[in-house]
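Allow me, if you will, to draw on your knowledge of protein folds for a short while. I am sending you one protein, given as its amino acid sequence and as whole-number tokens for its backbone shapes. Kindly check, if you would, that the fold set down in the tokens agrees with what the sequence suggests. The record follows directly beneath this note:
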Amino acid sequence: MRLTLDALNVLDAIERKGSFAAAAEALHRVPSAVTYTVQKLEQDLDVQLFDRSGHRARLTEAGQRLVQEGRHLLRAADELESQVRRVATGWEAELRIAVGDLIPIARMYPILNEFYAAGHTTRLRLFDETFGGNWDALLSGRADLVVGAPGDGPVEGGYNARTLGETPFVFVVAPQHPLARAEEPIPESILRQHRAIVAADTSRRLPPRSSGVTGTQDVLTVPSMEAKREAHCQGLGIGYMPRHLVARELASGRLIAKQVTTDVACPRISLAWREPSEGRALQWFLHRLAQPDWLEGIVA
């Protein structure tokens, strides 16, 4: 390979400092060493990188492109060095965190700010999952940590779990829906006559889970709890929602809570992580998420 990181670094310094002499001073080299590096690179590439016809050498168009693209390589090399050092000291290069959609993902952002403010540089990747998709993401290796996995985990193991609490659910309908005027508690036989709205399970391998659907009841499946909430507000169907996710809608009257004869149990949500769990970034999050402040209003 004719290009070297050292040569790219020299070109970057010349462009930033404005001259060979200033670049040499910044790099703590003699000017002749800088000149030699540039001349050798031009010979190796068979490309003129500087126009020397004037009083001061200036980058040619090819030289400008090399400096511009070379900076991407220099940044990538710096990041690779940082990753290697992090891994050597026990910090993961990347931590993948799945957030169950019973938990607003915005609840995680103040915690991420704390992580970054502490100077940790592990790359974080957040994504959301629904129902069994949380456990599926963990067991399939898509996630290292799951925040808010609902219900019981798969029996095959290979992970650790810690209960966060139970999430209260409420049965809701829109004020324009026929059941808004129904006498309470509403029997299951009446519920079956109306369309239920469910959030799709994002599991790719494990059997999908669903909640609050009976027998041959008509079902509208939507991609997330957020979409489910809005579908309820539009009067498209009935169903259960986490109380904290519809608190504003209940307060404003966009949704109405109704008593039914067969209320669902409050699902338990958990932290779950893969074994082994030696990474320091994972341990940081497990320690921070053990503090209950970020769960206010979510768990009973």
Q: What stands out?
A: The mean pLDDT is 91.
